[in-house]
Amino acid sequence: MAKNIRTSGNYSIRAGTGSTGDRTLNLAAQLIDLDSVSVKIRGNLDIEGTQTVIDTTTLSIEDNIITLNRNDSGQDVDAGILVNRGASANAALFYWNEGEDVWKAVTSASQSATSVTDTALAKISAATPTADDHVATKGYVATQTGGITIAGDDSTVVTVATATNVLRFAGTNGITTAAAEPDTLTISLGRNLDNIDTISTDRSNQDLTLTANGTGAVVINDVLSFSGMATDPTATAQTKIYNKTAGGGGTGLYFRNSNIGSGAVGELISKSKATALAIALG
Question: Domain ranges in the chain?
Answer without folding.
Answer: 240-281
